[in-house]
Fold:
Amino acid sequence: MVDDSEVNRRRFLRATGAVAATVGVAGCSQGSDGETETETQTPDDSGGPSSTEFSRPSSYPYSPGETDVQSARSVMEEAGFGPDNRYELSWTQYTSPTWKEIANTVRARLESAYIDMSISEADFGALLETTEKGSHEAFTLGWIADYPAPQNFLQLVDPENTVYDADGYTPNGARLFWSEDANTDTPIREYIASQFNRIQDNPGLNESAVQTRNDAVGNIEAGLWESAALLPIYHSVSEQFWYDRVSYNPPSGMGGSRSKENVSVDGIMGKDRLSGTSATFSALDPIASGNTASGGKIMNMFDAPMNYPNGDTEVEPLLISDYEVSDDLTEYEFTLQEGIQFHGDYGEVTADDVVYSIRRLVESNNSTNTYFPNSVLNIERETDADGNVIPDSTGVEATGEYSFRITLQQPFSYTLEVLAYSAFSVIPEGIIGDIEGYDGEMSQTEFSTTNPIGTGPFTFVEWNSGNGGSFTVDRFDEYHGQQAAIEGIDSAIITDTTASYNYFLNENADVAGIPTAKYDPEKVSIESTDGSQEFGTYGPLENDKTVNMARTPTINTFYVGFHMEKVPKAVRQAMAYVTNREQFVDDVFKGRGVPAYHLTPPQVYPGGTSAYNSHWQG
Structure:
């Protein structure tokens, strides 16, 4: 069995690497800026769309590297706007000095294009709530990879996955509300949807399937340019800073929210506990977590079947000891490690706990992450006439005390990678009674706020929510994996980035980031590299200390999106014309990233960075 599973594991790693290793995107012609071609697709064996036609740009069409106010004004005039018919646009953003600077710059430029833009700010939780309700027009958000593949980013713009007020469906995409009532041509909406289906419907490892997926990536990106539904702004690098007293292993390309502190922190001189800061978050239930801050907490307290060790991009088993995959990539038989203990008095992890946890993710009304099991993995399940999952129909079953099977409705190439997502974390069977067959020992609210129980390297102690609050966990001494070198973690919840930085300056935090407003590129000294990571020092700080630093290219994209039912296409295009990414990266973000012309980051774009650049440059 071990030999067979190792073969299967290599097959999956090849599938993961195939996307990044295949150069070129077919169907995207070469041409100068603004040149277009008509794209017509007919049904084919690779799952292409049926007779969808639109004028597709052959390169990024909105004056890249320029601040083109004249074109912004022209596109608005063509749409009937002018001095006596101005458009009032509402911009909602995460509380951030850098994004505020970008917003003010964009607002000043749009004034000459007959657009009056108001700016509002919110913490992350409030921003998510506002945009999920559709109470917005333009908004800023970012996406950090859940698994390293284009599909994980392009699902953000799959039209069905952007409509948050639809019945019988829980989306996980950008808050675009790209419905049939959107302010865009129907063909482009249908085209994006059909191209995303080509990715989903061709999960195989053969050359044809890989090429079909790669083609669809470039087609979706070009369609996104045409629609101007979402404007990628930049791909950031992650920079971590820490004092000499900390023995620290910075997380790799999947980022800090995919790492665990038992691995990243080897010890602290003169201290037993790690001190840090945190943004606000709203839930500690794995099936209901929704941002990076909560994701990091859940990673420390819970374990999913698979794991990205210290944020590395290659997935490894965590709770499981072995697995087998069917030839058609639809059935996965897993064997759990024996002896893994839950926190508290909840005993040993068995297959029944895994089945219950995945059922909750799919069937519970408290689950806000159903997109991953239902639309990404497409786990086998039955639904009623309204699209709701019928209780206990989820395709996960215990096949023994320590073995379980997951069955998919169709093949998927990144199943193991998705099973590293924290939403798949395992909790004790029946602890919450929010699915049929269980009364529960506690309410979901109690579990999610005051008593989360998992198997992770740290156990919950206390959470005082909101700005000025705190979050505390202790080491779990019975952890099945690498024991934490620290006794616990104490995090101060601080929403203001300057206040968070001052907390670090006062040495109240051991490891931190430095907000861009306080960052000085001249203080960086890179001394060594390890793969794509760079290591060195930064300083002196205002407290006269020089700290260690690491710079890691992470797989992410930060963007401006639009409510498609509200914001006219001309307004979206006008903003695209005045968005000078190079200027923003250099002057606002101080070089801590690269301009983004695709939603798909260069690390996972088919063919890598060179193909990424060739595609948008034409």
In short: The two ends are 49 Å apart (CA to CA). The mean pLDDT is 89. The first helix runs from residue 2 to 21.
